[in-house]
Amino acid sequence: MSNPYEVLGVKQGASQEEIKKAYYKLVKKYHPDRFQENPLYDLAEQKLAEINEAYDYLTKNSNSSNSVGSNGWNNKSNSSDFYNKVRMNISSGNIVLAEQMLDETDARNAEWFYLKGIIFMKKGWYDQAYSNIQNAVNMDPSNFEYKEALNKMNMSNNSFRGNAAGRGYGAGPDLCTCCQCYCCSELCCDCLGGGC
Fold it and tell me: What are the two backbone dihedrals, phi and then psi, of residue 23, each rounded to the nearest 5 degrees?
């Protein structure tokens, strides 16, 4: 592993607050979501992994590694307690805090992706929601909650497409039907003494 202080761009012996500040700044800069459909995506992913490794090392090997995060939750606490707090924030409508909590943790397990997908759904970002929930299902295919959410999204998507096609969006009459209508109107007009 590279020197973790150099990776985060802080001086050796930096405080936990300085380390955390540098870490979040780098995560925002190199997060792969910023590089979607970009040739730098893989490089950003590698850089973020290096940043996470350096941050983990410095926080776990510090005297104050059990410090409480800025949101009042302990980053090293029981993960089920952590995710329950995220869920409580989502259900109470505090999406910003829920998302901030998820973004500040290093764990990227199936539940993290599921909850991130729910947050995107609440924000109206359906593509990102679908992608994250699909990721959660891929990571934990036996979880009923994740599969149910994905199925509901699929049904909603299919329903939307079906309704749109029925209202003239997307699926319209084919070329044969158009020709038949034109020929029929031409004959009707000729029979009535006019021309089309």
Answer: -60, -50
Secondary structure of residue 74 in the 3-state scheme: strand
Q: pLDDT tens across 149-178, in order?
A: 888 888 887 665 555 545 555 555 556 666
Whether residue 117 contacts residue 105, with contact meaning beta carbons closer than 8 Å, is answered with no
Contacts 24+ apart (CB under 8 A), 134-137: 135/110, 136/110, 136/111, 137/110
DSSP 67: P
DSSP at 77 = S
Nearest-angstrom CA–CA distance, 2 and 49: 12
Single out the residue of 158, 156, 110 nearest to residue 133, CA to CA: 110
Q: What pTM value is reported for the model?
A: 0.46
Q: How confident is the model at residue 14 (pLDDT cuts 50, 70, 90)?
A: confident
The mean pLDDT of 176-187, rounded to a whole number, is 62
Of the candidates 141, 139, 116, 136, which has an alpha carbon nearest to the alpha carbon of residue 31? 116
Share in percent of the chain as helix, strand, coil (round to 5): 70, 0, 30
Other C-beta atoms within 10 Å of 135: how many?
A: 18
To the nearest 10 degrees (0 to 180), the angle between helices 110-123 and 95-104 is 150
* Separation CA 170–CA 178 (nearest Å): 16
Q: List the structure tokens of 88.
A: 């409580």
CA distance 188 to 196: 9
